[in-house]
Amino acid sequence: MNRLQIIRELRRHRKLAEKRAFNFEQNKAAKYIVWFMSGFIIVYLMFFAVMLSLVANDGSGSVTALEMIMGISPFILLIDFLFRFMAQQTPSQIVKPYVLLPIPKSTCIDTFIGTSLFTWGNAIWFAMLIPYAIMSVVFVEGFWVTLGFLLCFYLLILANSQWYSIVRTLVTNSLAYWLVPLAVYAVVALPIIIKGFSEKGFENFFEFYANIGTAISNGSPLPYLGALALLAVLVAINRRLQMVNVMREISKTEQTRLRNVSQFAFFDRYGEIGQYLKLEIKSILRNKNPRKSFIMVTAAVLVLSLAITLTDVYDSPLMTNFWCFYNFVIYGSMQLTRVMCNEGNYIDCLMVRRENILKLLHAKYIFSTAILALPFVLMFPPVFTGKWSPLMLISYAVFTAGLQYFMLFQMAVYNKQTIPLNTKFISKGGVENNYYQVVVQMVALFLPVILICVLQVFLSETLAYSVILLIGVAFIATRRLWMRNIYNRMMRRKYMLMEGFRSSR
Predict the structure, then answer these.
(1) Which DSSP string corresponds to 390-408?
(2) Are 118 and 231 in contact (CB under 8 A)?
(3) What's the rounded Cα separation, in Å, for the pair 213 and 65?
(4) Do 383 and 393 touch, CB atoms closer than 8 A?
(5) How far apart are CA 503 and CA 500, in angstroms?
(6) For 93-134, what is each residue's pLDDT tens digit?
(7) CB of 283 closer than 8 Å to CB of 421
(8) 309 contacts: CB under 8 Å, gap ≥ 6
(9) Which of these, 454, 464, 321, lies nearest to 382 by C-alpha position?
(10) What is the DSSP letter of 88?
(11) Calpha distance 51→136 (Å, rounded)
(12) How confident is the model at residue 429 (pLDDT cuts 50, 70, 90)?
């Protein structure tokens, strides 16, 4: 096969990847919900385009429509960068099935980089840009300037996709590499830093990047050349980084070295559940992927808790409800949506005795509930300063341990794809592409906020929090019943689950 034939075959494989995935049947159902959510996002972007157009067309401002959209473009690109962590994989994550085949590794990397550039996800921002351009740009600047603006912004989005891939690969290797995007975004924010975090600083930031819009209006080739050069440089860096990462993973012969062995004898008094609690803790302490995931979630809780405490950005009722719930459920949304995926590495051992899995689920529930103590303590300052009430904090914590954990633990019935404990190749099909997990995460994040907002419309604030508290208590009190239900459903599907876990190792 020549290079072109290899590229065509690899692209065909990627198109068939979801149909070959072990979770295809559950994805097929959940994917419709994801499409609905994507449609909602598109509608929201179009609404945002209308709002921006109204501001640009009011005639009272001193900036043009192009200057305004380019002035806020760094924020748009930052949002785009953060949302890519939900779905986009890096080339080194999806190259695993091909590393032992007699085809050039560089061809695989090039194909997957090219595929990551030309996906519908990179075009979703046109749902905002095209309506904005029609309403505010094309009749003022002309068709060709409008087309140039869309082309320039699209090149920036493509460069952003490569920037994400670079960062994702680096932080997979070491969490210390999070300093790289922090440093880059600090450089991007220099116009604010120079003038200070004040109204004048943000005006300076806006004016600095609005100059790109001015250059596009004047027909200057510099914005296009700059965006194209940035894209080319990031593609070259990404290509080299993915190749190095793949070769390092192939040739690595790393062994785990333990300086000391912790017995955690305290848990011995709790019998088998105590042993599984030890397993949960040691899995995080000794294995790279669970440890990194736990550290990242903990860091997110710390940062969010500080933001809630030290700023007034989240003081509106809607933001208060959402971020307080989010701070509690973030551990579950990241860990419990993948429940049993780590255990897929040794699922045969867990199946040798009756109700082993049930006791493991109980241990996971106890461990996940105990972890809620960290965000609970970190959110004391807003209570002390009077931002939040103690009843609100307690009711949200109990609701998370009750109803939300009930929903998240349902994934134990459907997850059947093993997550490697230490290797950096995530999986053949990519656990990130499990739409069931995406749907469950979205429900766990937004259902409580909708529920509390509805309750606060019809009830007093204290009574609404009391209802939330009672719902959480009810699910905690009945945890043995719904855990047993989950276990029984898993046993009815045990051969299907074991086959999936074994095949995806």
Answers:
(1) HHHHHHHHHHIIIIIHHHH
(2) no
(3) 8
(4) yes
(5) 5
(6) 566 666 666 677 677 777 777 777 877 778 888 888 898 889
(7) yes
(8) 379, 381, 382, 385
(9) 321
(10) P
(11) 11
(12) very low
Q: What is the DSSP letter of 419?
A: P
Amino acid at 363: A
Classified as helix, coil or strand, 472 is helix
Name, in order, each residue with C-beta under 8 angstroms of 227's C-beta and a sequence gap of 6 or more: 152, 155, 156, 159
Cite the DSSP H helix spans in 21-90.
24-56, 65-71, 73-83
| 62: number of Cβ within 10 Å | 5
Structure tokens at 310: 């030290």
Q: Which residue has the tokens 């680096």?
A: 170
To which residue do tokens 């980084």 refer? Answer: 241
User: Could you report the per-residue pLDDT of 146-158, keeping only the tens digit for each?
Assistant: 999 999 999 999 9
Q: How many CB atoms lie within 10 A of CB 293?
A: 17
Distance CA 313, CA 101 (A): 52
Instruction: Rank 32-46, 88-102, 382-396 by mean pLDDT and report only the highest.
Output: 382-396
What's the burial of 82, exposed, middle or buried (CB within 10 Å: 0-12/13-18/19+)?
exposed
Nearest to 455 by CA among 392, 405, 402, 388: 392
Instruction: Report the range of poorest mean pLDDT among 222-231, 262-271, 285-294, 403-412.
Output: 262-271
Query: The tokens of 372 are what?
Result: 């809620």
Nearest to 117 by CA among 91, 79, 144, 149: 91
Looking at the chain, the number of H-run helices and the number of E-run strands are: 27, 0
Answer yes or no: are the C-beta atoms of 314 and 418 closer than 8 Å: no
472 and 401 Cβ atoms separated by less than 8 Å: yes
Q: Is 43 exposed, middle or buried (0-12, 13-18, 19+ CB in 10 A)?
A: exposed
Say how far apart CA 94 and CA 109 lie, in whole Å: 9
Cα(11)–Cα(499) distance, rounded to whole angstroms?
Answer: 27
The rounded distance, in Å, linking the Cα atoms of 192 and 186 is 9
